[in-house]
Amino acid sequence: SSSRHLVTAAPSFENPERMAEQLGVGVRRVPVGKDGRLDLEAMAQAAKWAGLIFFCNPNNPTSTLHPAKAVAEFVARVHKESPDTTILIDEAYHDYVTDPAYATAVPLALENPNVIVARTLSKAYGMAGMRVGYAVAQPRTVENFNRWAITFNQNSLAVAAAIAALGDPAHIEQERARNTEARAFTTRFFTDLGYKVMDSQTNFVFVETGRAAKEFKEACAKRGIMVGRPFPPLETKFARVSIGTIDEMQKAGVVIAEVLRGEGPARASTSSNPQER
Amino acid sequence: MALTRRSFIEAVGIGGAGLLATPRSVWAGLLQGTAPAPLAPRPLLLHNNENPLGPGDAVLQAVRSALASGGPAGRYPWEDVNQLHKAIADKFGVAPENVITGCGSTQVLRVGVQLFTSPVKPLVAGQLTYEECASYASLIGTPVRAIPLDKSLQLDLDAMAEAAKGAGMVFLNNPNNPTGALLPAAAVDRFIEKVLAASPDVVVMIDEAYHDYVTDPSHRTQVARAVKDPRVIVARTFSKAHGMAGMRMGYAVGHPDTIKKLDWEGPNALNVAGIAAATASIKDQGRLEREQARNTEARKFTIDWFARAGFPSVDSQTNFVFVDIQRPTKGFREACKEQGVLVARDFPPFEKSHCRISIGTLDEMKRAVAVFGKVLAVKAKAA
């Protein structure tokens, strides 16, 4: 609300802070650590009197995560000092995690009225165009949320698709395996060229290219490869590159290597879109 | 073959229509792999002002393509949204900068209330009108000046204009839901000019959801004014005559500055199937005209039936009628439901006398009036 602020990491998924700005709500942006992980100590400090903490785990765009124990401790710590602060844990990339120290925070949401876990069908489920997401929380918390939701904000086809998708866990296992292989390939590609890659537990990598994200993106786009938008405050040196199929990453690798070496002819440019994920 | 709501879903091949009418508990059973309980025979759905024929073949084809393998369902639909805005703009002879889309016109109305009203800038609306703006206003702490209808069950424009002084937004639903009544363009023009002259800050939101069903020649859309005046917005929907209530597509037309302000979500609220459907539908003027004609015939049949039976209706310019059934809505609704006909919810302060009944196909209305006749033959209970 206008008197209770939002706490978010920098960089993190921008949607909550964009909405907060539109609503005239204060935003405290807490820089991530050097390893791209959310700075739990600093975020806990910033959380005093906050209305909402946006906790993206794994984090977009840095691709890193905090293990289950650290998340539970963070929640307990925040609520000890600020029991009314709601913590929204965004697990959009949950299905791509392979780190055994990670676990979903859904149990925390079920036992705590001020914790909500958000999920989406836009990533591993491959339904970005269908616009289906969901959250898990205590019934009273959900009721309160629903008072504000647009009635019928899900279209009928997406509902049918989501039910079918959620009923097919084997498909997600396959998708995770596919991504894990392509992620390892992509990470090796960059590290072989001498570029540091953050420890990715998602379907994208956050690479220290050493150059401005904007220019890197434009150079890649000219050559037919669309990579991620700039993510302040790390946009001067880091680029986010999503992970496609291994075949796509091989093709992209040729182009990206050229761009990083500062060579190769520019081909016809493709349009880039400001509203990206 | 007539494309009903039911057959639309089956034809797209996503599973039976039954799935979508299934209660949540059965969904849970589906997830666990148990078979759903058999469904009761489907009642006549005359309670939500839906188009009984659904969206039509061209739209169905467009949706199939949008969901085809290798198609765009896995990608965010931002480029497709631009194409839709262009198609809507072309239809009205305006620019894409004059158009915004949303999750139903609901989204446009709610963002409007969010932007233009506040605890010190009230919403002005008819006491009996589409409830979305007032509901959301109450949620965010905006006071609502609810203006009673006049004696002829029309929105009281003089009283609304008076109440608009110092207000943030005036909501005008024309034709009005749930009465079906239309205000002629000349009266609406005078009203808007009066409101804007007396209240320099107020915005007028005109909801023309039922525009495509209007046959009265005194009607004219306010789109031309809206594109020129940043304080007037026209909201439209794909849920009624376009027949795609389940696709969640709506839009507004207005001045570019206002459209920019209304753009809270960007294209994130729109799904690929809905975008494909809306793009195809907005280009099919012929189908809209046929739908208008179809509705006009079924509407006349329904109004005439009630009139002959002694129950007058408000002169409807929409796809529903507000009938003076001379008894409480609740009892009438429950009795109709027992006989397989669903009619609308209560609309205070007329819940002791009137009922809103949506217009289905002519065939459906013939079946419905047989039920209405039986139910109404029972003497009206004392209020």
Question: Which pair of protein chains has the largest interface, and what are the residue counts?
Answer: A-B, 31 and 40 residues
Please outline the major beta sheet of chain A.
Answer: 6 strands, mixed
Oligomeric state of shown chains: heterodimer
Low-confidence stretches of chain B: 1-35
Tell me the Rg of chain A in angstroms: 19 Å
SSE sequence of chain B, one letter per element:
HHHEHHEHEHEHEHEHEEHHHEHEEH
Quote the distance from N terminus to C terminus of chain A.
25 Å
Number of strands of chain B: 11
Describe the structure.
The complex is a heterodimer of chains A (277) and B (383). Chain A has 277 residues and is α/β, with parallel strands linked by helices. Chain A has helices spanning 15-23, 40-46, 68-81, 106-111, 139-148, 156-166, 169-192, 213-222, 246-261, and strands at 6-10, 27-31, 52-56, 86-90, 115-120, 133-136, 204-208, 238-242. Chain A has a 6-stranded mixed beta sheet with strand order 2-1-3-4-5-6. The longest helix of chain A is centred in the middle third of the chain and has 24 residues, at 169-192. Chain A is globular. In chain B, 43% of the residues lie in helices and 12% in strands. In chain B, the strands form 3 sheets. Chain B has a 7-stranded mixed beta sheet, with helices on both faces. Chain B has a two-stranded parallel sheet with strand order 1-10. In chain B, α5 packs parallel to α12, α8 (157-163) packs parallel to α9 (185-198) and α13 (285-308) packs parallel to α15. The longest helix of chain B has 24 residues, at 285-308. The radius of gyration of chain B is 21 Å and the shape is globular. Chains A and B meet through α6 of A and α3, α4, α6 and α12 of B.
